[in-house]
Amino acid sequence: MLVDYHVHAVGHGAREHTLENLKEYIEYAIERNLKEIGFADHDRYLSDLNLDLYQELQKMYPQINIRVGLEIDYFPDKLEEIKKIRYSYPFDYCIGSVHYIGEWMFDADKFKERFNEWDIDELYAKYLSLVLASAQTGLFPLIGHTDLLKIFGHRPTKSLETTFGPFLRELAKTGVVIELNTNGWYKPVGELYPSPQLIEMCFNADIPITLSSDAHQADQVGRDVDKALNIAKKAGYRKIATFAKGKVYFVEV
Ligand SMILES: [Zn+2]
Ligand SMILES: [Zn+2]
Predict the structure, then answer these.
(1) Which ligand is nearest to the CA of 39?
(2) Which of 25, 42, 52, 67 has its CA 20 to 30 A from that of 89?
(3) What span, in angstroms and rounded, lies between the C-alpha atoms of 114 and 108?
(4) Which fold, 2-252?
């Protein structure tokens, strides 16, 4: 079964949140055989969204399950604000994502020179501690693009086990789901988030997964989620997570 739980209907504020726009997204989802689609725009555009449209959309397209989520930026010092956003609407689920280290939006092309200011292994440790802390809040059943720090090709000099092993074992204890986010294939790093080797480590650590495209426009919906699923199966996965009304479900794939 194919799903896509990370779809941005308004991209980076590039278009209006209208039924017309959403219909285009659903048409691509159906064409790519998705059984479920989860819309999860960035929380900074929340006030631009008309979330009631999704009920209308669901009535128009009974052949696909439409879920409503939100991708929330994790900042360790903004927990109260994050909680307010999280419970401002009965979301089916929310994605917790680390895009910032302090004030630095490290995945933005215009700020990538700032990688040079860091020892890369220390940066990985810092980044992964933030991802773990976001999972430990219990506010996010789904964690976004777990190894996003590699976006421009910066790799830890230490082994994958040294860098990610302890992190993954702690992450497993929180029970969160991670996404196989196909957008990484279209970024400078040109690699699935997380990498296939890391997916094997996640399987061994007993961390559940789901599939996502991180689409920022309609024609990216469901892009390559079938390829990601094949990689997951090779690693040993037989189930993926789905989300509805604040609960997590697992379906065989
Ligand atoms: Zn993100
Ligand atoms: Zn996203």
Answers:
(1) 2
(2) 25
(3) 10
(4) TIM Barrel (3.20.20)
